[in-house]
Design a protein that fits this description.
The chain has one domain: Glutaredoxin, CATH 3.40.30. With 166 residues, the protein is α/β, with parallel strands linked by helices.
Length: 166
């Protein structure tokens, strides 16, 4: 009993010490009010898309993966959002380092229709400092990040996040 308690206490103290020793000014990706980093990524058919080519339009970037349960949970809400607001906001899914066939099968099986891009080397995930998925960015017509959210969203959350009146 005492050995278990000592081991648990030691683990807690080590984790607390590690958390305390971390720099408090770790970068968190492009912040609200900053320009969204430009990128060029292929879609599932191999066509290339640049974020800067969408200047003048509002954009919802959603970083996700097929193996991620919270990502899977929010996909129907994103589809509902896309169906209702696709003319107001360009919705783009960005998947890191999964095969084209795995992504395409998942998208087809789910009946999802928004643009899907592949970040084959994880470079855009790195530029946006995406550490947890799903992570979403809302970008305005000028290419400025207006909102960032980590975690899954439902339809009311997506509407609020993108400043769309429900």
């Amino acid at each position: 009993m005492w050995k278990k308690l000592l081991a648990l206490t030691t683990c807690v103290l080590l984790m607390a010490g590690a958390a305390w020793a971390q720099p408090k000014d770790l970068p968190i990706g492009p912040g609200v009010g900053q320009r969204a980093p430009d990128f060029e990524l292929p879609d599932l058919e191999g066509g290339l898309h640049r974020l800067s080519d969408l200047r003048g339009q509002r954009i919802l970037l959603n970083f996700w993966a097929t193996w991620c349960p919270p990502c899977r949970a929010e996909m129907p809400a994103i589809q509902e959002f896309t169906d209702a607001n696709g003319e107001k906001v360009v919705v783009i899914g960005i998947n890191a380092q999964e095969t084209q066939s795995a992504i395409a099968k998942f998208i087809e099986d789910g009946g999802y229709s928004w643009l899907q891009l592949r970040d084959e080397r994880g470079k855009v995930f790195e530029e946006y400092l995406v550490r947890f998925i799903p992570t979403s960015f809302y970008i305005d017509e000028l290419g400025v990040v207006r909102n960032k959210y980590i975690g899954p969203m439902d339809l009311p959350g997506l509407l609020k996040f993108t400043e769309i009146d429900s």
